[in-house]
Request: fold
Amino acid sequence: MEENRVILDAARFRLTIDRLCYQLIETFDDLRNTCLIGIQPRGVPLSDVLKKRLHEILGHSAFDYGKLDITFYRDDYRTRDKPLAASKTVMDFLVDGKNVVLVDDVLYTGRTVQAAMTALNDFGRPARVELLALVDRRFNRHLPIQADFIGLRVDSLDEAYVKVQWDPAGEENKILIFPDKNSAFDS
Reply:
């Protein structure tokens, strides 16, 4: 792969969001005993979009919604060259006995999800925890973690980098794949 390319355009992106919302409704009915939790930082834009769309479909927002920072739960936070910048956890509820859906943009090695599950323990003992990932890079897992709800599977070389590009207006969201991480941040 020599240059970046769009692997999910804006129109298909909207369809994927709708499909994920309807899968959540099929699984959790009206979501009243469900918590939707975005993993900081990159899972939050996706969880915000899902929350808004679920509210439109259901006509209510009676489910709990939070944003979970995992910075100090990561297994690599002490080995970084420069300090990590923590995001703010925004959760004014406990998860005891509730269904929890953790939301992240790209499931890659599984380490972010592991850290999120550890951080979630600070908020109680959920009835069950499921994972929603917009992109599943299933051949690059370091840990035995899999998503329950998947927007798109991407089978690519380990050097390739998948980036979800969020449009502030929400109309031109898309997913791109780059030959490597450096070229993703140059664009």
Notes: The chain has one domain: 15-156. The mean pLDDT is 91.
